[in-house]
Amino acid sequence: MRRTRLDAATKDLDPPFAIVDLDAFDHNAADLARRAAGHPIRVASKSIRVRDLVSRALERPGYSGVMCYSLAEALWLSEQNVSEDLLVAYPTADRASLQKLAANETARQRVTIMVDSMAHLDFVDAAIGPHSDIRVCLELDVSWRPFPGLHIGPRRSPIHTPQQAKALAARITQRRGFKLVGVMAYEGQIAGLGDNPPGQPLRALGIRFIQSKSGPELIQRRTAVISAIRQVADLEFVNGGGTGSLELTGSDPSVTELAAGSGLFGPTLFDAYQAFKPEPAALFALSVVRKPNKRTATLFAGGYIASGTPTPDRQPSPYLPAGLKTLGLEGAGEVQTPVTGKAAEYLKIGDRVWMRHAKAGELFERFDEVHLVHGDRIERTVPTYRGERRNFG
C-alpha cells in the first residue's frame, strides 16, 4: 500500500514537507521516452526546479538538453555543468544576465535565447553593446486560428505564417552578433490542455474537437515554416511539444526534438488526458491539527495554489488516504486546509495527509528541500532551487 510505504519512509519527519517518489519518477521518465518514439526529450526545468532531478532525467536514455525558463537560470545551470545545451524558452529583458552571457565564452556556446521579433535583438544590442555571436531561437506562434478574430492557444510569438518566419529568419541571419540555430513551436492548446477533464463532458468534447482540427493544421503549417526558414538559415534543432502532445508532435517530420517536464512529476492537471496517465511522483504531506466534526479533519497549511486561471482545478488535492476532498467554500488555505469524506473519520491529530499540487515545479517554490524516496526509505534529501537560494521569478 503506497500510503503505508510513504508514511514508513518519512516517519521521522514533521509536516509540512515535500517528497519525490523516485520509483514513480523513473516510471514516468521511461513512459515519456516511450511516447517520444526516438525523439530526444529536452527537460523543461520550470516543471522540475530541483537541480538534482533535472540531472537525473538527463542521465536517462532519450533525454538531451534543458529547456530553461529564465536566462539567469540557464547561466547558473551552465556554471553547475548540468548541461551543455540550454535553451531559454521565453524572451528575456534581463540586462544583467545578458551582460554575463556576452562576457562568458562557455555560456555563449551552451545557451540559446528566444526571440520572435527584431525588437528582441535591438534590446540585446542596447544592453550589451558590440558582442560575439549569441545563439538565438526563433519562436513560432502555433495557435489555431480557424477564422479571423479567433485565437485558440497561448499568446506567444507574433510569427504565424511561413512568409513571416522566413522574413524574420533572413533578417536575423543578416544581423551582426547573432546566430540563428533553432526554432521552437509549443502547441499549448494540445500539450497543456487535457482532453478529458473530470466531470466536464461537454468541455471534453470541445477540447477534443479543437485538438482534432488544430493538430493537422499545425503539422502542415510548421512543416512549411521550417522549410521556408531552412532556405535562409542552417538550423541545429526544431523543438516542439510538451507532456500532453509527444505523439502528435513526434509525428511531425519537421520536428527534431520534443520537450517535457510535468510528466515526470504527474501533477493533477495531467490527470485530464485520455492517452496517458503519469504516476503521481511529487507529493507533499500535511498534518491533521483539528477534528471539527466526525467527517472533517483540518490540516495545517497547504494553500499552494497553482498559477493560471483562478479556477478550482488550480488547487492542491488530497491524495492519500483516498476518499478525501477539500471544502468548496474554504479550499486550501494559508494556515489551514479542511478535508472531508469518509476517510476523515479515521484520521487523528498528528496523522498526515498526502497532497498533490495542480502543477509540477511550482510546488518546490514552497520548500527548501525535497526528500527523494525509494521504496520505503529516503534515499537522500536534496535542495530545491529555493533551497539553493535561486529565485528566477
UniProtKB/TrEMBL annotation:
<dbReference type="InterPro" id="IPR051466">
    <property type="entry name" value="D-amino_acid_metab_enzyme"/>
</dbReference>
<dbReference type="InterPro" id="IPR001608">
    <property type="entry name" value="Ala_racemase_N"/>
</dbReference>
<feature type="domain" description="Alanine racemase N-terminal">
    <location>
        <begin position="20"/>
        <end position="190"/>
    </location>
</feature>
<dbReference type="InterPro" id="IPR029066">
    <property type="entry name" value="PLP-binding_barrel"/>
</dbReference>
<protein>
    <submittedName>
        <fullName>Amino acid deaminase/aldolase</fullName>
    </submittedName>
</protein>
<dbReference type="Pfam" id="PF01168">
    <property type="entry name" value="Ala_racemase_N"/>
</dbReference>
